[in-house]
Design brief:
CATH topology: Glutaredoxin
Number of strands: 6
Helix content: 40-55%
Order of helices and strands: EHEHHHHHHHEEHEE
Number of helices: 9
Structural class: alpha+beta
Strand content: 5-15%
CATH architecture: 3-Layer(aba) Sandwich
Number of domains: 1
CATH superfamily: Glutaredoxin
CATH class: Alpha Beta
Distance between the termini: 35 Å
Largest sheet: 4 strands, mixed
Shape: globular
Length: about 240
């Protein structure tokens, strides 16, 4: 089994696009059935409140953040929407309700243990980036957990305590040690890393190289680092590429 760890945040449009790209890469990868995806935690805004007030609108918050005009910020949004549409994603920034994603990451760790992690990750992306759901709210997280088939009451029990908090922090500490400054960030077989929402062809090449080394065929000591190919678009604490 080949493990592919992916650091990302729910509040990251490039991470949803990156998910589509790795899915496309796996669709053409001969050993896809032996690849295990594991989503790792990365918070773009760890200090965010559980739910940010809906006003001002997202476009105005974006303009303020970048010191841009409202029209310039809308242009950034329009470009992201167009790129997402190429991968079949309908991003609705007019609906987004920003909030803290720490509990969502804890829930994703629980979902890993029950075999529902990838389905939950997809559901959370859609909830935040298309439906405008407040994923910092615990009622919303519990609803998402049930929708993907997690055991009834498991999300409520998790969110009432601090289970998996240490695991989330450990993911973030590992990301820091790897020099990860933006997500998505992919690591195959624990050592082949690539940064950003790379095209499917680039991600497939990383999978091929990791598989070849795992199989002991032409193993190399060279690592595929984040600068080994053109870096893909990503989101970091300072904002997202457009």
């Amino acid at each position: 089994m080949l493990t592919l760890d992916i650091w990302s945040d729910i509040a990251c449009p490039w991470c949803w696009i990156g998910k589509r790209h790795i899915e496309a890469a796996l669709a053409d990868f001969a050993h896809a059935h032996e690849v295990q995806l594991r989503w790792r935690a990365f918070e773009l805004d760890p200090g965010a409140p559980r739910l940010v007030p809906p006003e001002p609108p997202y476009v105005e918050r974006l303009a303020r953040k970048y010191g841009a005009t409202r029209d310039e910020a809308q242009g950034m949004i329009d470009r992201m929407v167009a790129v997402a549409a190429e991968d079949g994603l309908d991003m609705r920034f007019d609906r987004i309700r920003p909030g803290n994603t720490f509990d969502a990451h804890r829930l994703l760790h629980l979902a890993w243990s029950s075999g529902h992690q990838d389905a939950l990750k997809e559901r959370l992306f859609r909830a935040y980036l298309h439906e405008g759901r407040a994923i910092g709210e615990r009622d919303v997280l519990c609803e998402m957990a049930l929708e993907v088939g997690m055991k009834e009451g498991s999300a409520e029990a998790l969110l009432e305590g601090d289970a998996f908090a240490q695991e989330v922090r450990a993911d973030e500490a590992t990301a820091h040690s790897l020099g990860v400054s933006g997500v998505p960030f992919f690591v195959a077989a624990g050592r082949f890393g690539v940064s950003g929402a790379q095209p499917a062809a680039v991600l497939r090449e990383v999978l091929e190289r990791a598989w070849t080394e795992k199989a002991g065929e032409g193993a190399s000591t060279d690592e595929v680092g984040p600068d080994a190919a053109t870096e893909g678009a990503a989101c970091g604490p300072a904002g997202c590429d457009d």
